[in-house]
Specification:
Elements lengths: L1 E8 L3 H12 L4 E9 L5 H8 L5 E6 L4 H11 L4 E4 L5 E2 L3 H11 L5 E3 L2 E4 L7 E3 L7 E3 L10 E3 L17 H9 L5 E3 L5 E4 L6 H6 L15
Parallel strand pairs: 1-2, 1-4, 2-3, 6-11, 7-12
Antiparallel strand pairs: 4-10, 5-12, 6-10, 8-9
Helix pairs in contact: 1-2
């Protein structure tokens, strides 16, 4: 069974090799689709190096944002399942095999998510805005994280990622819409290494302005 791994890249030349090496440690059949979203650093040179592997597809586009980059990757994917890997994160060696085992055990499920090993410098790195509540924070372990998604490719015939840059939580937004038509299951075994101690991310930028309390007076969850 072929798994298509989509990796959007924007100015991540310093960590892209590390991410790719974690794919090389996987068992089973895979292809990795690297989407350079208009990088201005040495990312194109790194991608040219990695693209010598026939299992790696490299595409460069203008800067259009995360959602558009993922959708470009989906247009090129040929696997039965689609997985995702951020250019500054890593798969643990059993990431793909663990998900394929879950597929075999739960053939009725279309979308799997979950299972993080978080690298953080402070307790604050372990918190993310509670998008569903609209205020307060929750553990990143309880968030839908893009890199942990493992999805039957046919799901994307109905739902794609939002390309509007105003939508910050592309992973959560996708699962929220897709679960109306497809079965979703959370996994708990940590197989994805999520680096929260890197340069400011979307999560960090949103936390800076996120409301701690709801106007209705509800208590935030920590």
């Amino acid at each position: 069974m072929l798994v298509s791994i989509i990796t959007p890249v924007f100015n991540m030349s310093g960590t892209l090799r590390r991410a790719h090496e974690s794919v090389l440690r996987q068992t089973g059949r895979w292809e990795q689709i690297l989407i350079d979203d208009g990088s201005t650093d040495s990312t194109p040179q790194v991608m040219a190096e990695l693209g010598r592997d026939p299992r790696v597809v490299c595409v460069r586009t203008e800067n259009r944002g995360t959602g558009a980059a993922h959708n470009t990757g989906l247009d090129l994917a040929s696997g039965d399942f689609v997985a995702f890997l951020d250019a500054d994160d890593e798969y643990l060696p059993n990431h793909l095999s663990s998900h394929l085992a879950a597929v075999a055990e739960h053939p009725e499920v279309d979308i799997f998510w979950g299972g993080l090993e978080v690298v953080a410098d402070s307790p604050d790195d372990l918190l993310a805005p509670d998008v569903e509540a609209g205020f307060g924070f929750l553990s990143v372990h309880d968030c839908v994280t893009q890199g942990t998604l493992f999805v039957r490719r046919r799901v994307f015939e109905t739902f794609r990622f939002e390309e509007n840059r105003a939508v910050c939580w592309h992973d959560y937004d996708f699962v929220r819409r897709a679960e109306s038509r497809f079965r979703v299951m959370r996994l708990y075994e940590p197989t994805y290494r999520y680096y929260r101690n890197t340069a400011a991310s979307t999560v960090d930028r949103q936390k800076a302005t996120w409301p701690i309390e709801d106007p209705a007076g509800r208590v935030p969850v920590y």
